[in-house]
Write a structure and sequence with these properties.
lipoprotein; 145 residues; Lipoprotein; 1 helix; 39% strand; Lipoprotein_YbaY-like; signal; globular; mainly beta
Length: 145
């Protein structure tokens, strides 16, 4: 063996011996456990035969709607722009956030520059109390004031 080869071999042996001497340690750093995820899917649409402005945005939310006298808690949200009709959506969430005793619903709205154009007027229950994980949402046009 040449001198550089001997040096490389000696270094490799030293690293191998050092690694063997450490009990309970791994050679690779551990990474945090991945968060489990699940999703609610569906489509959002409206009946009117009108085109939306190019800068309109569809906002779909999964929320805990258990308390009638308190604001709902948003669990997941997806914003879609430009809006195409019908618009498929996927709301990914952490299943650990879902309490089987609570009620969850999906809602959708279309906004343009903060102004509401379309919204849901029907409750679309999902996830608990016998509801599935899909929702087909039909929004209604909001009348200007």
């Amino acid at each position: 063996m040449t001198r550089p080869s001997l040096a490389v071999a000696a270094l490799a042996a030293a690293f191998a011996l050092a690694a063997c001497g450490r009990t309970g340690e791994t050679a690779m750093p551990s990474s945090p456990a991945p968060v489990a995820s699940a999703s609610v899917t569906g489509t959002a649409t409206y009946r009117e035969r009108i085109a939306l402005p190019a800068d309109a945005e569809l906002i779909v939310q999964l929320a805990d709607v258990s308390l009638a006298d308190a604001p709902s808690t948003v669990v997941a949200e997806q914003r879609i722009a430009p809006v195409r009709v019908p618009s498929p959506f996927t709301l990914s969430y952490d299943p650990a956030q879902i309490d089987p005793r609570h009620s969850y619903a999906v809602s959708a709205r279309v906004e343009r520059a903060g102004k509401l154009l379309f919204t849901t007027d029907t409750r679309h229950a999902v996830l608990t109390q016998g509801a599935g994980n899909t929702a087909e949402i039909v929004m209604i046009k909001v009348q200007p004031h």
